[in-house]
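Notes from the 1:1 (GR / supervisor)

We went over the backlog. Supervisor wanted to see one worked example end to end before approving the batch request, so GR pasted a single chain during the call. The sequence is below; no edits were made to it. Supervisor asked that the structure be written out right there so they could see what the output format looks like.
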Amino acid sequence: MILLRRLLGDVLRRQRQRQGRTLREVSSSARVSLGYLSEVERGQKEASSELLAAICDALDVRMSELMREVSDELALAELAQSAAATEPVPTPVRPVLGSVSVTGVPPERVTIKAPAGAVDVVAA
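Structure output shown during the call:
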């Protein structure tokens, strides 16, 4: 099961570490206890919107940027989870195309458009 609070905490921690700041600095600036901020970063506590706003202000990060990063992490986690839960996807079967013969046309004038990997070209 994917826990949103854990993903949110991971993103908050990365933001703080990118800035080279300590938990103590950010907790003081956000006016949040050091222990509580630590629990939020570890995904052990749910952060209220007010608390998130204070942490974002302390990190000088827009909440929308934070949520966008959390959303990206969530999308990747969901993909990984669904890939692990489903059977392997079979390799698609390439369609068999009929032969085409071109005579009397200079080779530099021949253009063939087809999806990548759908056509084998054999020069005669």
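Supervisor's comment: The chain has five helices and no strands.
Batch request approved.
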